Amino acid sequence: MEYLTMRKFFNGAVAFVLAVALSATFASCHRDESGSEPMVTDVLVNDAPVVFSKTLVVKSNVAATFAYGGVTKGTATKATFENANAKGTLVVTPDAKAAQEGYLPQTIDVSFGEEDWKQVNVQLYKLSANAAFQTPGEELRVENDLENQKDNELEDENTGLDGNVKAVLVVPADAGNTGNTAEPYSITVFKPHTDEDKNVLANSTIEDAVLALDCRPDGARFTNPVKVNLYIPGSENLNLRVVNRQNRSERINLTRGEENSLTVELTHFSIYDIMMLAKVISINRSDSVIYDNSFEVSAGRQQFYYDRQVGYVADNSAKSLIGQFLDNTFGVPMFLQENVPYTFNATVAGTAHVTLSQRVTSYEFESRREDDPNKFTRFSVVVYGAVKSKVELTHPATSDTEIHSGGSND
């Protein structure tokens, strides 16, 4: 009899341990507040990334058509591409009126990386109206006009430049142009947009275009270098270099002058990007709860709406060189994306508890001049990133339970 009793005890203990293990694996059981009926809580989604379709928003300072991923939209100053390709080429072409005024098309390589929302603010530009031929044996000086430095008056987006960026093209008498001499000389300053993948890691150096120079005539080549004298507000304490957009390995001589003055020497004409370099000093990541709510559901597909932040927040003016650097590195200044749909499937009727959290990353940068290390600028930025979700469903224990994972925005 004692043997049977111990055997029953052993079998009962094993059954109890298995029951506890299964309960811990699939759900938590408890009684409701009245104590009359046992309840179970299923974890339907457990800290899973929220899957968004890719959305590309493009804004232009003039009316244009926009082409991306085989889809063309326009004519307008804004276009939205839903379910966009993660990588592709964006072509922005001015409409007939803007083209007649001299605005030029732009082609931009777009890459979403890990992001699901991307906004590209494009400044279509036209060549400077200040153009002149060189008189043989005389030095020629041609200054850029301010046409491309006007603020965009459309949709409150700013695609102008910071202050009055002054550029003077100096062609010496003995420059010896062996290329294109049939067209006049000019220099145009405009605001570029780049959208290459950037791996922003601690102690890494990020490099991005903040200004661009279009030197004409295209195809001009010189025996002796020509100079471009630049005055760029806000540049004195920033690490800058100049690259040929068509050949980034080409070394361009850049000399820093007093305060915000710089001089570039060129032996041929092309489009040149003025790059800003900044080192990542620190990175801090945290998760911020943006939705936390419980509500009654029936079995089947459930949907609700929430708001999230998109983009970055910084103390720097959107018109500054640092602002342009941040635009090209992290997208656009922060805005609130409202009424974002979220869906999940409830296995049975019950009470759902949904928590959505968003990754928030703070970066600190330092841009230090190589020629004068005592001159530098530190700046910080907060970037709003991916959203993850957790969904729990509490219902009577007599209902069937099932584990699910994942959540989405439709």
List the helices and strands and how they pair.
Elements: H1 2-26, E1 27-31, E2 38-49, E3 55-68, E4 71-82, E5 87-94, H2 96-100, E6 106-111, E7 117-122, E8 140-143, E9 166-171, E10 186-190, E11 205-216, E12 221-231, E13 239-244, E14 253-256, E15 261-268, E16 271-297, E17 300-314, H3 321-330, E18 335-346, E19 350-368, E20 376-396
Parallel strand pairs: 3-7
Antiparallel strand pairs: 1-2, 2-20, 3-4, 3-5, 5-6, 8-9, 9-12, 10-11, 11-16, 12-15, 13-16, 14-15, 16-19, 17-18, 17-20, 19-20
Offer a quick outline of the entry.
The protein is 10% helix and 52% strand. The model is unreliable at 1-27, 151-160 and 401-406 (pLDDT under 50).
Characteristic key phrases:
single chain, 410 residues, 5-stranded mixed beta sheet, mainly beta, elongated, 3 helices, 10-stranded antiparallel beta sheet, disordered N terminus
How would you explain this protein's 3D organization?
The radius of gyration is 30 Å and the shape is elongated. The strands form three sheets. Strands 1, 2, 10, 11, 13, 16, 17, 18, 19 and 20 form a ten-stranded antiparallel beta sheet that branches. The chain has helices at residues 2-26, 96-100, 321-330; strands at 27-31, 38-49, 55-68, 71-82, 87-94, 106-111, 117-122, 140-143, 166-171, 186-190, 205-216, 221-231, 239-244, 253-256, 261-268, 271-297, 300-314, 335-346, 350-368, 376-396. Strand 19 (350-368) and strand 20 form a beta hairpin. The chain has 410 residues and is mainly beta.
